[in-house]
Specification:
By secondary structure, the protein is α+β, with helices and mostly antiparallel strands. It has one domain. The strands form two sheets. It has a five-stranded mixed sheet with strand order 4-3-2-1-5. Strand 2 and strand 3 form a beta hairpin. Helix 1 packs parallel to helix 3. The longest helix has 46 residues. It is elongated.
Length: 143
C-alpha cells in the first residue's frame, strides 16, 4: 500500500513538472514573439518620425508621478505601459519614494505578453499588436 502511494505521488510530481515545463516553454515563446513586435514597433516609430519622450511613472497609490531615465513611447492613453527606445517593455508603476521625487524613478523592463492586461481585474485587456498599431496610427498626437 505504501509503495502504491509513493508511486502515485512520484507520478503526480512528474506530471506537475511536465506541465510546468510546458507552461514555461509557452511563456518563453510568447515573450520572443512580443519582443519581435516591440523591436518592429521601435523601428517603425523611428521611420514615421514619432519622437520618443522621457517616460514618467506613477506611484502604486496613484498620487505621485516621477520622471524616469527611460525614453520611449507610451502605448496606452493612461500612460501605464510603454516601449523604450531599447525595445524593452515597461510597466510604469513604482513604489512611492522620496528619492525618486528628486532623482527620478528607476524602472526595470518587464516581460511583454501578447495580450496586455490579461488576467487583470478591470477587464481592459488588449492584444499587443492592436495596441502597437493604434499607437503608430496616432503618430505624434498621443495623449
Amino acid at each position: 500500500m505504501q509503495d502504491e502511494q509513493a508511486a502515485w505521488r512520484e507520478e503526480q510530481r512528474r506530471a506537475v513538472a511536465v506541465r510546468a515545463a510546458a507552461l514555461e516553454a509557452d511563456r518563453a515563446a510568447e515573450a520572443r514573439k512580443a519582443e519581435a513586435m516591440l523591436d518592429d514597433f521601435v523601428r517603425r516609430a523611428a521611420e514615421a518620425g514619432i519622437r520618443a519622450r522621457v517616460l514618467t511613472a506613477r506611484s502604486l497609490d496613484g498620487r505621485s508621478t516621477y520622471k524616469t531615465h527611460i525614453r520611449g513611447w507610451y502605448l496606452k492613453s493612461d500612460r501605464s505601459v510603454a516601449v523604450g527606445e531599447d525595445g524593452e517593455f515597461y510597466v510604469l508603476t513604482v513604489a512611492p519614494s522620496l528619492r525618486a521625487r528628486f532623482a527620478g524613478a528607476d524602472l526595470s523592463p518587464s516581460v511583454a505578453r501578447l495580450v496586455i492586461g490579461a488576467g487583470g481585474r478591470d477587464g481592459e485587456s488588449i492584444p499587443l499588436p492592436t495596441l502597437l498599431e493604434q499607437r503608430l496610427a496616432a503618430g505624434e498626437h498621443w495623449p
